[in-house]
Amino acid sequence: MSRSTKLGLWLLLLQSGCVPGYVRVTLQADAETNQGRPLRVLVRSVNEQVYREETYASASRLVILPDATVLQSLTLEPRPGETRKFWVKSEKGKAMALYFFYTAPTASWKVWLKPALPWRITVPLGRTGVKENDVRECRVFLK
After folding, report:
1. Is the pLDDT of residue 129 over 70?
2. 8, 36, 90, 143: least CB-packed within 10 angstroms?
């Protein structure tokens, strides 16, 4: 592949919001997300067994005392039309999970991403949990 072709491919990927080795996460909130209170979010590198067995209490401890599995931590302020975008460095062949620490979760509070990770994921957040049916992933160039 020529140098100009490689450069053109990289520019196309950047314009599409895709960067190899990273996942672009978009969180969509509104004024009612987490009942209008700040929402803590963690991104972690975990396998499926840990993800499935982990309780809300054990995962929430990592907000205060993060371990080596925590890739990103942030606080989302609920506002009308709030959108937060960020990049997370991903490890090839490893899974990733997003955790949302709602004050009173009654719906899903975490999302697991199996390998090969998507290049982009959009997660709409509701009043008391993730709007699971509206989560969108982009997994381009995968078989």
Report:
1. yes
2. 143
